Amino acid sequence: MLTRLIEEKWLTARAAFGFWPASRLQSDDIQLYQDDRRTDNLATLHHLRQQGIKAPGVPHYCLADFIAPEGGQDYLGAFIVTTGIGLDAVVSRFEEQQDDYNAILAKALADRLAEAFAERLHERVRRQFWGYAKEEALDNSDLIREKYRGIRPAPGYPACPDHSEKTTLFRLLDGESALGITLTEHFAMHPAASVSGWYFSHPDSRYFGVGKIGMDQLQNYARRKGVSLEQARKWLRPNLIESS
Q1: Cβ-contact 244, 214 below 8 angstroms
Q2: Using omega within 30 degrees of 0 as the cis cutoff, is the peptide bond preceding 56 cis?
Q3: Helix (H) or strand (E) holding 16
Q4: Does the N-terminal or the C-terminal CB of the chain have fewer CB atoms within 10 Å?
């Protein structure tokens, strides 16, 4: 039943992506520009830096580290994909038949399809649309091990834990009007079978977890982002050192 519904296109996949001139702003922010003249600011992305104790010589990463400072010629990308358009109707149909198994399976399959779509789009970005790795030729095993160049971290995940940064991403790509994806008041995406994030092309870019941060960085982040300390504390509570 589930296969037949998908074949009849009850589920729709949509995607949007883009690339912009970018510079690291001071230490931890990224400035996007309207065009290659780099005179008109488009958006500022706010990031956090690891603060935990590390061995000597081991860097404390921030995503902004993977963008060239002002004066360089660097770029950053963004994407939103979904495979959940129409999923609510599929799930409702199963639930009306008291078929909870296939209702759950439909949601799980849509989630997996969204992740597969995001991975496939990233491959085409590297080899075709951005084209910084045109000669990439990896087999499936290497793709699973993420041996390709570049990362696609998502707002709300370990490297950029502030979900509210999705509002900037959605504004840049017109996610609601163009794709039919909305953000809840807590910045969750609907349909849930959706993936969004940033594209970094730096050869040394890697995934990492920001981990716990102190009050000093929380205050700095709130100032850079132009929000109250309480707002920043609300968004980043899981990352705060208990005494903060």
Answers
A1: yes
A2: no
A3: strand 12-25
A4: N
Contact 22, 75 (CB under 8 A): yes
What crossing angle do the helices spanning 215-225 and 229-236 adopt, rounded to 10°? 110
Q: Read off the tokens for 66.
A: 């993977």
Tell me how far CA of residue 210 lies from CA of 25, 35, 94, in angstroms.
Answer: 19, 31, 41
Q: 201, 153 in Cβ contact below 8 A?
A: no
Backbone dihedral angles phi then psi of residue 171, each to the nearest 5 degrees: -65, -40
pLDDT in tens, 33-87: 999 999 999 999 999 999 999 999 999 999 999 999 998 999 999 999 999 999 9
**Integer Rg of the chain from CA:** 20
Beta strands in 34-155 (DSSP E): 41-46, 74-85
In CATH terms, 13-81+113-211 corresponds, of 1.10.10.10, 3.40.50.920, 3.10.196.10, 2.60.40.420, to 3.10.196.10
User: Which tokens is 211 given?
Assistant: 């981990």
Half-sphere exposure of 202 (CA within 13 A, CB side): 21
Buried-exposed string 188-207: b where 16+ CB fall within 10 A, e elsewhere: ebebebbbbbbbbbbeebee
Domain boundaries, the chain: 13-81+113-211
pLDDT digits (tens, 9 = 90+) for 91-121: 999 999 999 999 999 999 999 999 999 999 9
